[in-house]
Amino acid sequence: MEGHSGKLIFGKLGGKDIMAMQGRFHYYEGYDMKEVTFPERIMYELGIEILFVSNASGGMNPDFKIGDLMIIDDHINFFPEHPLHGKNFPTGPRFPDMHEAYDGQLRTLADKIAKEKGIRVVHGVYVGVQGPTFETPAEYRMYHRLGGDAVGMSTVPEVIVARHCGIKVFGMSIITDLGIEGQPVEVSHEEVQAAANKAQPLMTEIMSEIIKRS
Fold this sequence. Notes:
The chain has helices at 33-36, 38-45, 104-117, 137-145, 156-164, 189-213, and strands spanning 7-13, 16-22, 50-59, 69-77, 121-128, 150-152, 168-178.
């Protein structure tokens, strides 16, 4: 997986047992949705109660800057395949409610921690798309006008399955590039990864503190 080492790590953080995925399966790599979300099924069986998800995404909100940390308030699913399509798993209902896919208390706690530490955070709606191409200027405009603040190629399927399993979710996007209307900018994978690597320590600091306090 380009840009992802693909390791599974078990350990403790803040006195809590954790399972960490260093890298993930992506739909654009040719995996189907059952494979993409298989790790969340394993997490459920292992007793994981909270899923922390992060991603690199393109910002569409004109108030955003490259390197911003966006707390995900909600998402819009543009993937062509739904992770719950097919026979229902007994971990949740056939038609799961998604009115609060991203836990409100965890988002409030993240805001408090960021303020204490002087870390700039923004809030927004994440748009999940198939990829692997970066968005055209017209696509950026469309997603933003539909209510999106950031767009990326992951996260949404995993969150849907986690919520189906009753696992709480906290999500954060690193804004690695901008697709602001009227300001088209060429994007490369290397530039995205460089921006993500620079902002990652701040995101880790917030998430680590949430784990300690939750």
